[in-house]
């Protein structure tokens, strides 16, 4: 029977560390601000934005919400992004995706200042992740790394398999595991014999978006299994890509859905916003550097936990 990784508890700890640091900054007269922009009325996006506002409240950030109508033009949205780029009260800018069809996500993201791009979607930040000298890590993969770390599992030298190669989860996830000296395989819809590849994984991260496609046959005995999927089962109930009931008997550690990766994503957004604010206010001279398995690893972990 696997140890269940409690994403709610880990994320609460991350947020508490951020809250304490924010409190100290406030004593020095430093306020932190996150601008959240939502266009249109997508119900799921409304929930995500509300949760982000709540998280800001928990850690003591000012949140500035900009709710724009569905028919907002690209020109109008870019004008808002430009205004927020120049606004000193705003340390981080998040444009909730997906945008309505007539707006191009890429054009909008590319116009956010990289140093305020707390989602880490701007090509500059994506490039920095490749070379391991990042300002921000994309929130979901960064959250997954925190969850793996919480198990005490050493990544160096381990077989790490990531299923999924999206720009926001799979690819950066693989890169972060590689930076920690994992031996990384990326799988996707064209992968041959997925079961065999997965069953050799010491660490398996699943980010596919198909309910319960990974059952116990895909899992190596004692593996760390992280389920990024947020799907609906045949009864409309929230579930993951991993068949939790069968896999929990075989894995060493496993995340549930809900209560695993989900809560980490917002916690890491708060961490990125704190990092952005510290860079913006001149309190962090250099971007954190990803240098695992050396003396700096401790320093890196400290940066990850306490920026
Ligand atoms: P995505 O862009 O749709 O990517 C899915 C990936 O899965 C693709 O690379 C695809 O391969 C691969 N795939 C599809 N079917 C497969 C199969 N049968 N075997 C192997 N690989 C297969 O999705 P995403 O944005 O990365 O999200 C993945 C899941 O994570 C979704 O459930 C999403 O809701 C969830 N998610 C959760 C959070 C969170 O905070 N918890 C955050 C982000 C995403 P191809 O490239 O070949 O098409």
The order of strands across the largest sheet is: 1-11-8-7-5-6
Radius of gyration: 19 Å
C-alpha end-to-end distance: 35 Å
Small molecules held by this entry: NADP nicotinamide-adenine-dinucleotide phosphate
| CATH domain topology of the largest domain | Rossmann fold
What would you say the CATH architecture of the largest domain is? 3-Layer(aba) Sandwich
Topology order in helix (H) and strand (E) letters:
EHEHEHEHHHEHEHEEEEHEHH
Total number of strands? 11
Identify the CATH class of the largest domain. Alpha Beta
Q: Estimate the global geometry from the Cα principal axes.
A: globular
Q: What portion of residues is helical?
A: 40-55%
Sheet with most strands: 6 strands, parallel
Counting structural domains, the number is: 2
Strand content: 5-15%
Total helices: the number is: 11
CATH superfamily of the largest domain: NAD(P)-binding Rossmann-like Domain
Low-confidence spans: 293-307
- Mean pLDDT across the residues is 93
In words, what does this structure look like?
The chain is an alpha/beta fold. The protein has 2 domains: 17-114, Rossmann fold (3-Layer(aba) Sandwich), CATH 3.40.50; 139-262, Rossmann fold (3-Layer(aba) Sandwich), CATH 3.40.50. It has helices at residues 7-27, 43-59, 74-86, 105-110, 123-131, 139-150, 170-179, 194-198, 244-247, 261-280, 296-306; strands spanning 3-4, 33-39, 62-68, 92-95, 159-163, 183-187, 203-206, 224-227, 231-232, 238-239, 253-254. It has a 6-stranded parallel β-sheet. Strands 3-2-4 form a 3-stranded parallel β-sheet, with helices on both faces. Strands 9-10 form a two-stranded antiparallel ribbon. Helix 1 packs parallel to helix 10, helix 2 packs across helix 10 and helix 6 (139-150) crosses helix 10. The longest helix is centred in the first third of the chain and has 21 residues, at 7-27. The protein starts with a strand and ends with a helix. Helix content is 42%, strand content 14%. It is built from 11 helices and 11 strands. A hairpin with a 5-residue loop joins strand 9 (231-232) and strand 10. Bound molecules: NADP nicotinamide-adenine-dinucleotide phosphate (NAP). The site of NADP nicotinamide-adenine-dinucleotide phosphate (NAP) has 26 residues, from helix 10.
